[in-house]
Amino acid sequence: MIQRPLVVVAAAYLCGICGAKVDKVWFWIFLIFFWIVSAIIYIRLREPIFFNRRDRFLLIIPIFFIIGILQFQIQSINCELETSLESKGVIYGTVTELIHGSKNVQMTLKDAITSDGRRFCGNILVICPNEFSWDKKWIGSTVELSGEYKNFSYATNLGQFDEKDYRKSFGFCMKFVSKKIQIISPAKSHFRQELAALRERLASIYQKLLPEQEAGIILAMLLGERGFLDDKIKQLYQTGGISHILAISGLHLSLLGMGLFHLMRKLRCNIKFASFVSLGVLFLYGYLTGFGVSTKRAFLMIVLSLLANILGCTNDLPSSLSLSAIIILWKRPMLLFQAGFLLSFGAVVGIALFSPLITLLQNRNKFLNLIFISGAIQLMTLPIILHFFYEFPVYSIVLNLIVLPLLSFLAITAALAGIIGSISIFFATWIIGSSYTILKGYEGLCYLVTKFPFPVLTLGKMEVMTMVSYYILLFGIVFLCYRKKKRRFVSLLLFLLIPICFTKREGLTITFLDVGQGDCAFIEDKNGTTLLIDGGSLSEKQVGTYRILPFLKAKGVGKVDYAFLSHADLDHTNGILELLKEGKIKCLILPDTKDTKEVFADMISLAEKKECTILFFGEGSKLKKTSWTIQCLSPKKGETKSATENEASMVLRLDYENIIFWFMADIEKEGEKQLEKQLAIQQKSKISILKVAHHGSKYSTTKTILDQIHPQFSIISCAKKNSYHHPHPELLKRLSEVNSQIYQTQDSGAITIYTDGTNIKIVPYCP
Q1: What's the predicted TM-score (pTM) here?
Q2: Phi then psi for 280, rounded to 5 degrees?
Q3: What is the pLDDT of residues 650-661, one digit of tens each?
């Protein structure tokens, strides 16, 4: 008989969801291979009793596999209203939640319909008017909203946050910016209203008891309210590897539920009564905090644990975890691909996987036991962390050995202060003091870690197949540790997978990032040398923080070797300035004009503080490496024009064997006339790729220049529906006349070019 049948059923269900998500032939081949190999291993290990009468449940495995496929496809269907609705309108729906955002109040609307009766396929995220004030009366009421429809933004660059994918996984299909809200039918039940009011009251108590920064941490930790969380603290905790404490975890529910259960048992309460009371309190707390993924997982596992106690059965951790996963994903299968779900379940899987080894250490050395638990969680969650966050906090295991033992005391004292604060703020202030001290200690430890060498390793985004290979190797190694027999057969399979875990850089890669109305090109060679040519935007706020830096992290780039700034316009510089503030640039290269030092004075000063080398490039300047050379064609050294003018833009040519890349910045008119002389004496190449000047402006990239360069491919960087109407039809016509194939970031997102020096491959991020 197969042990833990729920684990097998859950595996089939998850494979179905993954198959529907990937929807590629190679993945289906891999799934078939995986199940065949699993069956062969099982037969070899348990051949005498394989597929007896008790194993007939295996017949339902294909059913759960198909259910996983169907449920994912149903949830992932785009709501047709996203594209067919007018930009403005009126909708009706029932309010289920009010959430404090960093700048506004957000409302969740379910069962929403338009004024003409068309129904939405999912929930609506409503951005409330500026004058909107929180009130419990809205919860559960049917409302009428007038305003503007907005589709969720989606990632157009590697590493960029995909709002659409994230929101859809939680059942949202659209965003609505409301101008006016009114109740048309009050709520019939006031239960949810009172819970929401309690949450709001607790939040106000913590804001009175603690400074803003610490209050934001407690609100996130105990109430799941992340709208008041300080971005600097969030980044600091991520660097230290303790950001998991900023979310409601299973530890909170275990302390509350199991602590209450054991207390009632000591008071000689009946086991059933103690279980039902504990579960009731847990349910209310889960409802109060919004029942996030980790909260649901912990609640379900505690339910199964208490149910096992009542029935006199053994609670099996892998089986209860598998059943919890099926229940959580049943309505929202897309949650499987969110970091919160994977980290929550991955941590418990890590404990379950290494539990036999951990059990051996129990009652011997508690500190060593804690190290093993922390190490097991890190081993299991490492690929997930790299896939979503691209960095590994080096000292996280050590830091968590200090943080975790204090976390229980922190949660208990903070919760107690919140309860007492509803009666007396004075007495609550005395209790919350210990929580404040612990939080300041956490902050101090994280600051201390940042002073150590290499506090964070930027390893890049781990690809899915590498993750799969890692887990097969990990599970296989653990299997070999537990099994003395059959090692050779499994070892052979594991060694076949080792090469998949490693990738090798080849040739030259150039990515033209989608930064909206701006420019940014990233270059990386096979030796790992990296360059940025410009980096700024007029249409995207904090483009360096939210687009360029995440891309660099996803590529595994901790610091850029060389950053070129063509001229001083903000749509080329503001992102580079953000990177400089973070100390992410080793060498800054500026155009050599008459007033460069004055125009770039602030940036030069910041670069010097960050120990960043500064160079000045003019006509004839070169940067040469083993396989490539980049040279400056314009401006002339000491150019009389200002660095703020487009005519004085730095124009660059990159040579990589038979391939030439032209970076034209914003040069136009007089600047192009001077450039024509340089182009006339330039050596031609087999393939020429042009980054079109000035985002496709009407008066840039003249026919004369195109005839001299004769680009086979042209890249235009601009924003959708920009006020400049770039690219201009006349420019597109000129490119077509020279038979140049055109790519635009506004349509394709980031555009990546791979070349070995002879051939090229162009891959748009959004095909």
Answers
A1: 0.91
A2: -65, -45
A3: 999 999 999 999
